[in-house]
Amino acid sequence: MGGYYNSKISFQNLQFEHTGHTLIEHWNGYGWKIVPSPDPDRSSSFVRPDGHFHQRITVNALSGIAAVNSHDIWAVGHYWNGEANRTLILQWNGHRWIRIRSPNASRYENVLYSAVAISPHNVWAAGTYRPFPRKHYLTLIEQWNGYIWRKVPSPNIPRQNNQLYSISAWGNNVWAVGRHDSTGGGPLAIHWNGRKWVIIPGQKVGNCGCLNTFNGVAVGPAAIWTAGEFMNMQVHKSFVETGRSLRVKH
Fold this sequence. Notes:
Helix content is 0%, strand content 56%. By secondary structure, it is an all-beta fold. It has one domain: 6 Propeller (Neuraminidase), CATH 2.120.10.70. Strand 9 (72-80) and strand 10 (85-92) form a beta hairpin. The radius of gyration is 20 Å and the shape is globular. The protein starts with a strand and ends in an 8-residue tail after the last strand.
């Protein structure tokens, strides 16, 4: 289980702003235990012009975790380097968590939300990035080939925000889902066909400018399920789609 925690302490002439740390816990059959995990972004401090000591905000957050086996586990997320969010990938090597170098698609915003592990030489991570300030977010897919993480080209709906929140696989049948901006927002699903990622249309709920989002996906041997939410006239509801709605062919 992965995540983050933060803290804030204030005294006279002394201020600590929110500092985020990676958080990983392990179930040993009886209870959860916190396992030490690295923070790539270390907090820094300075004295402001008014004489107050100030601690900078730091962010180290994990959003997804996946296991090949008990001694090969991956956790993904992002950290703040002082200028922008950068991808963060940690690996459990059977003894401790270590940071593994991961690519960034731009100088600005890079976030990984989910991971799936197929084999020691085939691990995927999905998220989003922003190529330039005030530009649309684009899908971000990265793959571990047993030696390095590399960015894999992934499709986007033009002139809209495109974000991936979850990725799942059954063998080499890999799917990633999220949302895109249409009239109010629409669900987004992309599929790895063995050579490249392609967009597979998902069914939108409601005939209006509703928010539709896929937040999770599960891939099995004969079916694919996605779960998410839609918002219509200030009413928030959950919804589920099956592989049939995604026009999956087996």
